Amino acid sequence: MKCNMIILVTIAVLWMFSFGVQGWIAPDFCRGSECPEFTLVQKIKEFEERAYFASRWITTDVASAKQDDVKAGFMRLYQYCKGQNEESASVTAKTWPAIITITEVGSADEDLSVSFFIPPGTVLPKPNDKTIREENIPARTVYVRIFGGFASYSAAQANVKQLRDELNEAGKAFELHRYTGAGYQSPWDIFNHHNEVWVEAV
Description:
The protein is an alpha+beta fold.
C-alpha cells in the first residue's frame, strides 16, 4: 500500500512539472496579464534568445502598415472578443502582447496580419467576421530586441534591422523575410512603453 502511494505521488509530481502546473511567473512587462510562456535561453548584447512554448492566437489580415489599417484589424479582434461571434460570447482579452506580423514578399510588398494571444484552455466561438482565424503556433525559438517609446512602423523597422545585424554578427540563423512587432500596452498609454521585435530562429 505504501509503495503504491509513493508511486502515485511520484506520478503526480511528474505530471505537474510536465504540464506547467507549478506555475509560470510572467515577466513584469506582461503587466499582470496572461502572456505566452517562454524560457529565456540567453541574452547576447542587445537581444534575447527565448524558447517559446506552443501558443494559440486569433488573427486577421490587414491591408497595410498604415495606422488606420492596423487599428481596424485590432478592432475586429477586440469586437470578436467582446461578443461579435456566433455565440455572442465574451472571450478573455486581458492578454499581452498584441502583435503584428510582417512577411516581406518583394522589394516593396508585404503581407501583414495582427493577432491577440489566447490563453490555454480558452473555448473560442466561431467568428461572425470570417476574416478572423485561429492560429496554433508550435514551440519555437525567437530572437527579441526590446525598445521603448511609441511603437511606430518606422521604429519597428529600425529595430528589426538592428536585430538582424546583431544576429548576423553573433552567427545566428534566422528567418530572413518575416518579423513580428509586439506591444504590451495600449498605444494610448503615455509612459513606460515596452515594445519588442521578434525574429524566428531557423
